[in-house]
Design brief:
This protein has about 190 residues and is mostly helical. Helices cover about 60% and strands about 0% of the residues.
Length: about 190
């Protein structure tokens, strides 16, 4: 991802991304703040404290993205690089402790040891969301295998009433494959 962004210029950062209402700058800023959130939560856990990735909740997350999305491109890229390096340092320290912590893991959307996988999801999905040439066809096979299994486990909770039977009968060859399925948010 950082290679994709190495030559990012101010015009490109202001272009629309593939996400509704977000520019490339919104996506880059989100990725930097996401890395900060992971690091914040894990650093606190290493100290024996329990904090959320975004102590101010969704409002903090949105505010930080809005405040940062119009910065100069190279400032954004350096911010992302620095945030990612800090997170990698925290992961190293967590690994040295065997990913065990003296705080209850209250599951701030996911358990603490899942941070590397969750960050991988953010970087792969949003790298392709930037619309800068990296697409889902570029996703590593290991990521695709993990993400597909994760999404399939979550699928029953996303199906609309009645779609579970339509999907099951299609999967088992007992009926035609459903031409449409409405899924709830992931």
């Amino acid at each position: 991802m950082l290679q994709t962004l190495a030559d990012l210029d101010d015009d490109t950062v202001r272009q629309p991304s593939l996400l509704p209402d977000w520019t490339v700058g919104h996506v880059v800023t989100h990725l930097a703040r996401n890395a900060d959130g992971h690091a914040r939560r894990l650093e606190a856990a290493l100290r024996g404290e329990d904090v959320k990735r975004y102590p101010g909740g969704e409002a903090q997350r949105e505010r930080e993205i809005e405040e940062g999305h119009a910065r100069p491109a190279q400032v954004m890229v350096e911010d992302l690089r620095t945030s990612q390096e800090r997170l990698e340092d925290v992961w190293r320290r967590c690994a040295e402790r065997g990913w065990t912590f003296d705080v209850p893991d209250r599951d701030d959307d996911w358990p603490l040891p899942d941070s590397p996988k969750r960050r991988l999801r953010e970087t792969e999905l949003h790298h392709s969301d930037m619309g800068l040439g990296y697409t889902p066809q570029d996703w590593p096979a290991e990521y695709v295998a993990w993400e597909l299994a994760t999404q399939l486990r979550a699928l029953p909770g996303r199906l609309q009433p009645g779609d579970d039977l339509r999907l099951l009968t299609g999967l088992t060859g007992r009926a035609p494959w459903p031409s449409t399925l409405e899924l709830g948010p992931w």
